[in-house]
Amino acid sequence: MEETISIKDIFQTLKKRWKLITLLTLIAALISGAISYFLLTPVYESSTLILVNQKQSKNQLDSTQIRSNIDMINTYSVVIKSPAILDKVIDDLELEQSVDQLSQKITINSQENSQVFSLTVQDSNPSKAAEIANAVSGTFEKEIKDIMNVDNVSVFAKAEVKENPTPVKPSPLLNIAIAVVVGLMAGIGLAFLLEYMDNTIRDEKDIETLLDLPLLGSIQKISQHK
Fold first, then answer.
1. What is the pTM of this model?
2. 137-171 burial code (b ≥16 CB/10 A, e <16)
3. What pLDDT shows up at residue 196?
């Protein structure tokens, strides 16, 4: 006989196992919170703004030159993360990391049709993040003149350390929220699994379902009184 599950059965299962579901959800939230607050290293970021604008001899705006400057930003993004720039930054700041490791900390962001792009550095130390961002931007501004024979780059906003810097990651509240959802789903799944594996006969309906026979009658339990 094919067994079907009604919405009523689902709610009964959830009601029966609500303590298990709640316990797993709380455990997941507590573990996520403990890891986020006590085990994961906070990461801070600091950014500089770099302008790409060819110096003109006359006070005229050349749309072709502006378009060219914008197109060059993609190339500059590659140059900034190259050993030609990062090796010098590592030597100047005496960093104990490789070019690849430093490159992974750097993110270049640009907006469409803008001659300005940002250089963002992430580090566990907010002061070090600002120092690296300024060093990379300054080195790039100086070295790009020889690398590509151009003079259209200038840093117009340096990175600064805020008075009370806030880490960009991890995000404890987000991690806890995700853990709550995962714990809730795991609890519900385990509740239905336990219910499926429970072969205990609890009422007349279970007998009819198990034996596939109609129930003719039942004997009530009679308590003995002295």
1. 0.71
2. bbbbbebbeeeeeeebbebeeebeeeeebebeebe
3. 82
